[in-house]
Amino acid sequence: MKDQPSPLRETDDEARKLARVLLRSARYAAIAVLDPETGFPFASRVLVATDIDGTPVILVSKLSAHTKALAKDSRASLLTGEPGKGDPLAYPRLTTQCLAEPVEPGNAIHERIRTRFLDRHSKAALYIDFPDFLFFRLKPKQASLNGGFGRAYLLDGSDLVIQSAANEAIAAEAAETVRDLVERHPDIADALAIRLKAPESGPWRICGIDSSGFDMISGDFLLRYEFETLAVDADHICSNMSKVAYSIP
What we know:
The chain is an alpha+beta fold. It has helices at residues 13-24, 65-72, 108-120, 167-184, 188-195, 234-246; strands spanning 28-34, 41-50, 56-61, 75-80, 93-103, 133-146, 152-156, 205-210, 213-218, 221-226. A 6-stranded antiparallel beta barrel has the order 1-2-3-6-5-4. Strands 8-9-10 form a 3-stranded antiparallel β-sheet, with helices on both faces.
């Protein structure tokens, strides 16, 4: 009997980039946890943002079933990637297996995550500081990418995390960096939206930067752009974004 060919392709840089975009461009995701009472998988929906290193972050109520499950067993899977018209299985999606780490309030990491979350989910301001809500960082361990029919890949958790010594410095200057960039180029969000062929919507704004790229949001639309190489500092990020916005196609 002949060996069956593997359905998996060799993981390359194109697959890694697609996986990162699918994870970092998600506004929400399906999360699967293990029910502590029955052991059965339990699926729910959560809002998603990212920390400065690209690690996905969720804000959840302590009363929810998935939060109680994570308190007992930190293993979780996150499904990201949106279908469009036609066959939903023809569109790329990413399943990321993670270990959930609660984020304790009252420190710089919590404040950074809170700020980044609100930049993406402004309506969460209504409940983000309630005492029964908390953040989890979902540390990627491995991931399965389906890029469409016949395009399956396995990835390591490190493929999804931004490995840069500049992360902390960029996080500390992020708000000021975006503010200064917009002051110098008031039309940069519109220019980026046009260049990146963003969906027609209301005004676009920059809602996040990191060493690997930037995020823009308009209403229910979120757009993620990944740089070709990691930025080494805030000035490098601004330079990269200006080149994308204003360089000749």
